[in-house]
Amino acid sequence: MARDTFYLESFMKTLLAFLLSLTTPAWATSAPDAPDWYYPEWLAEAPHAPVFKVRDTVNKYGRYASEPKIITIKDLIKFHGHFCGGLVEGATALRVAFDHLFPDGVIDRTDLMIASNNSACGGDIAAYLTGARTRFGTHLIDPKLKESDFVVKRISSGKTVRVVINAATYPHDVRTQMKKIESGQFEPADIDRFQDVQWAYAKKLVSRPAIESVDVTDNPDYTWPEPPCKDMGKRRDNDYKNVPEAH
Ligand SMILES: [Zn+2]
User: Fold this and answer.
1) What is the domain class of 47-218 according to CATH?
2) Ligand 1 is an ion; residues with CB less than 5 A from it
3) What would the pLDDT profile of 98-107 be if each residue is shown by its tens digit?
C-alpha cells in the first residue's frame, strides 16, 4: 500500500512538472534584457538605450567587488515601478554625468552623492544608479532643480558635474500635458495622450547618443541643499571597501 502511494506520488510529481513546463511563461526563461509586457520591444532594441556598469562592495563590511554589475533600463523599470519619460530622461542625463566622472566606464556606487528635484521618477533613478540615499544624506532634494536636472559628485575626489536635458530636446508637450493633468481639469483621454507624448520623448532619447540630448557642466557653481532627513545615523556598509586582503 505504502509502495503504491509512493509510485502514485512520483507519477503525480512528474505529471505536474511536465504540465508546468508547458505553461512556463516566456519571461521565466528569457534573457534579462529581453522585451516584456512592461518593457516594449522598441526600447529593448533601441540603439542608444543607456546601460550602466556599476561597482559595489561584496557584502556588508565587504571589500570592493572585483566584478561590476550591469544595470539596464529594464532594471530601472522594475525598481521604479513603471516605464515613463522621466525614467528615460534621468537615465540619459546621468549617463552623461557618469561619463564625465568615471572615465574607466565603471560607476562606483559607494562614492557618489547627488542632488535631484523631488520627482518620483527622476529621484528614483538618481538613487538606484548612484547608490546615494536620502536617509544617509547623500541624495539631496532641491526643488530649484528641474525634472531632468542633476548635480552629481564623486565624494572621494570632490569632482562634480551638473547635467540637464538641453533646450533643443526639452519636452514642452510632455510638460504641458503634465500640468493639465495635475490641474485636475482633464478628460480620461488626456491620460492616454500623456503616455503617448512621454513615450515619443523616450523614443527620441534612446535613438541617439545621450550627449546629444544633454548639457553638461563640470565643477558647477552649486550650493548643496541641507539633507531633507534628520540625522538617523551614518551609513557603515561601505566603510571597509579598501581593507587589504588577509594574509
Ligand atoms: Zn515614472
Assistant:
1) alpha beta
2) 84, 86, 121
3) 999 999 999 9
